[in-house]
């Protein structure tokens, strides 16, 4: 603090203070505008958020009428509080999460209530001094055991909340019994208020603009595969345009789409977990094979790792010389565009829930492009070129060839999904001629997929190809016959 | 059911039933044994789980004494229930998570209690009919707004639980006020019982065998980098042994260690989030730079993507021919072993919280191995070999060279962490001579890192190297001078 060192300093201090005070409303206004913009963006990104918030408000207001209506209040009294609590805690964004939490809460309350009453009666038998000791021991024992059980991965993923409520209810009911002998009524009131709150959540979340976790998972997987396809399609053009000398940093954003796929594991798993709690909805029956989506997601992530490596090539300091580029450009571009198209067709097939046969021809094209690329690499045209200049091109080519393998695996897993989930086969009315030639092509390609599985595997394929699943390809071709 | 088709079938049915009944105890015993084994394994994997369970039991038993002691019960009555609730809900595995939840719950209750009382008074003014309508409107409004705010990523990551409790408390207190005019006492009781439960959690989780999220994050990052190092070290040997003809599927497990690094993002982020709530503990002061660990973690993950690509080479169907293998073997093995050693030294430096200067020499070695590899690729010895046979080796080499770049970046970020977190410089007493030569080497290497940053960048380096951070390397060398 040097405010006291002179009158000039003091004056300056006050001037600064006045300036700061004058700037305050401007700053405040700027902050408010930024906040409003943020809020609007959050709502526009996913309008279901706004609807969800309104739904929570509605459920809470409905349940709080218990307090306002005399007949309801005289029945439940203060325990109506638990209905409010249940709504606040159980109401989640998706129907599956809400139902899962509600069922967990209900079942856990029922079981823990029964056990708690049992513990209370047992403790009652042991006399005035023994009762609190025995009750304390029971509470300690069940809390310790239940907490430990929560570490089991299977329990953690599906019943974690139930275990929590089990501990809570058991402790509350067995301990309350010490003071209040109307423990049965207490337990029954807790159960019924929780059921009322839970039912309100379940009904409002299912009926009013429901958000289905299963549908979200379905769309997320389709979107992720589409992103991979976009990145691949754009890649070929982008890479060789750049080595041709033109720079286009702005256009590269769509190439980055795959990045979000790299870390999508957790959201996929939790969505699949929620989806398992949901009843049939829209196009998805109860017991839709949600787990297969996780398999497709894992393969998509493996493909994304490859594209990450490709992206490394785009950003590398050393680019293939133009003579190398011109030799492999066509095959590479073809390969990446065809793989990209195949992935986009697969994504579209998932979205529309039809058999993904239209992707097969693109996969065939990608495979023949890979064959081309391989024979180019085999040919003698490289002998005159410095190997160091060839390296970036060769690396690129072998990663691309690996991408084709990944794409094939994704297609297989989606074929499996399509047959297990009984996706529709494509209607013959849609441009029959094109479809017809497509059919022949795709039947051929399915045969080729089945018999020559590992032929074009150059470079760094990840895993030995699994035995082709008999369920997918034959079913696909059978359903195509029914068209 | 064909049980009625003949007496023979009936007899068989009963025989089967008897056999099933006889087998029941055996099955039951086998299931029990399997369960006990699972439970024991869960406890042995991390004994802190058992301790945590006991701690929860202890806290809950302590808090439930409120019900047993007459003087305590007469003070709080049934509201003592909230103390039990708080313990069950707030007590988490790590200190940071417990403190974070407890503080969230406490602050939210305080704020919502104040607002709830305000809402109650405001509604009170509007007469007998207007009161429930106005109260309902307030509940609806705040539930909607608060639920929407929970979608903000920043609020979601740190204050999600607080927002939940805010909605809960506001609704409870403003609604209860309609029936019970002693609303101030109600709010005060809720706050004090929650504080008691929260304090019990905070004290027990901090004092009795505490589990610190910060320490876990620190160890996780060190372990992940060590895993990468192990995979790289083992890789060189494994790859060329296999191309030499020997198969050793069993030994390959340690190569898979890096896989868990690929998906570690979420656990790292939540640990860093919890760690921010923790006070200083052990070697970590309050405001330890936890966010830098996330940066190191991100770079480690990028390195893991490269190793995933390397793993693709190991599992590829086409392996480099033995003549190609013999040419690049030494350089590749050197490179991967030295990068692996560097990463393991870095992991050790993090573990021991010392300046990571001992890794610098290994990084230098890895860089010169990369140089070697590059000049090998440049040399004319390849002209007689079929290019297709060269491809796997070249791909391998260029990914390995990229791994060196990744290792360098990890080292830089750990240097930054070491200087920001003021890691100790290495004591001069430990084998002075070796250390002395190491010092010269590492000072040299730091200079080299600073001046020639992108020299050895062949193939698919990911991103243009960032401007070398002035904070890390100079500080590191300065601290080394202080030794």
Task: Draw up the topology in text.
The structure is a homodimer of 483-residue chains.
Chain A: H1 7-45, H2 48-68, H3 70-76, H4 80-90, H5 95-124, H6 127-149, H7 153-179, H8 183-207, H9 213-243, H10 259-262, H11 265-275, H12 290-315, H13 322-352, H14 358-378, H15 387-420, H16 432-451, H17 472-482
Helix pairs in contact in A: 2-3, 2-4, 2-8, 4-8, 5-6, 5-7, 5-8, 5-11, 6-7, 9-11, 9-12, 9-13, 11-12, 12-15, 13-14, 13-15, 14-15, 14-16, 15-17, 16-17
What does the model show?
- The structure is a homodimer of 483-residue chains.
- Chain A has helices at 7-45, 48-68, 70-76, 80-90, 95-124, 127-149, 153-179, 183-207, 213-243, 259-262, 265-275, 290-315, 322-352, 358-378, 387-420, 432-451, 472-482.
- With 483 residues, chain A is an all-alpha fold.
- Chain A is built from 17 helices and no strands.
- The longest helix of chain A has 39 residues, at 7-45.
- At the A-B interface, α1, α2, α4, α6 and α7 of A face α1, α2, α4, α6 and α7 of B.
């Amino acid at each position: 603090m040097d405010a006291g060192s002179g009158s000039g300093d003091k004056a300056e201090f006050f001037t600064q203070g006045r300036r700061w005070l004058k700037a305050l409303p401007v700053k405040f206004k700027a902050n408010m505008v930024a906040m409003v913009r943020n809020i609007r963006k959050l709502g526009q990104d996913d309008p279901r958020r706004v609807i969800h918030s309104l739904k929570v408000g509605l459920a809470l207001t409905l349940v709080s009428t218990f307090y306002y209506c005399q007949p309801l209040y005289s029945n439940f009294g203060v325990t109506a509080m638990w209905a409010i609590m249940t709504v606040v805690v159980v109401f989640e964004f998706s129907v599956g999460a809400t139902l899962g939490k509600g069922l967990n809460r209900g079942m856990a309350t029922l079981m823990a209530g029964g056990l708690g009453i049992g513990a209370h009666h047992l403790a009652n038998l042991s006399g005035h001094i023994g009762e609190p000791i025995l009750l304390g021991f029971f509470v300690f024992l069940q809390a310790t055991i239940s907490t430990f059980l929560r570490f089991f991965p299977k329990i953690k993923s599906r019943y974690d909340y139930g275990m929590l409520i089990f501990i809570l209810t058991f402790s509350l009911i067995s301990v309350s019994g010490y003071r209040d002998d109307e423990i049965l009524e207490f337990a029954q009131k807790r159960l019924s208020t929780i059921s009322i709150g839970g039912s309100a959540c379940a009904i409002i979340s299912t009926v009013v603009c429901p958000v289905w976790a299963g549908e979200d998972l379905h769309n997320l997987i389709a979107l992720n595969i589409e992103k991979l396809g976009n990145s691949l399609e754009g890649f070929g053009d982008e890479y060789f345009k750049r080595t041709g000398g033109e720079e286009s940093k702005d256009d590269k954003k769509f190439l980055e789409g795959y990045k979000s796929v790299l870390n999508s594991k957790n959201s996929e798993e939790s969505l699949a977990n929620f989806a398992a709690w949901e009843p049939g909805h829209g196009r998805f029956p109860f017991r839709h094979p949600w787990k297969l989506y996780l398999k497709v997601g894992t393969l998509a992530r493996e493909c994304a790792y490859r594209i990450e490596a490709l992206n490394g090539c785009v950003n590398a300091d050393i680019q293939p010389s133009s003579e190398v580029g011109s030799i492999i450009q066509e095959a590479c571009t073809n390969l990446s565009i065809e793989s990209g198209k195949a992935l986009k067709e697969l994504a579209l097939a998932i979205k529309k829930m039809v058999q993904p046969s239209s992707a097969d021809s693109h996969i065939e094209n990608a495979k023949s492009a890979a064959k081309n690329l391989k024979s180019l690499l085999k040919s003698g045209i490289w002998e005159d070129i410095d190997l160091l200049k060839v390296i970036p091109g060769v690396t690129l080519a072998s990663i691309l060839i690996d991408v084709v393998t990944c794409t094939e695996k994704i297609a297989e897993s989606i074929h499996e999904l399509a047959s297990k989930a009984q996706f529709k086969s494509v209607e013959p009315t849609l441009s029959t001629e094109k479809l017809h030639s497509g059919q022949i092509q795709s039947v051929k390609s399915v045969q080729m997929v089945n018999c020559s599985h590992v032929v074009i595997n150059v470079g760094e394929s990840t895993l030995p190809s699994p035995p082709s699943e008999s369920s997918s390809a034959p079913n696909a071709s059978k359903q195509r016959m029914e068209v």
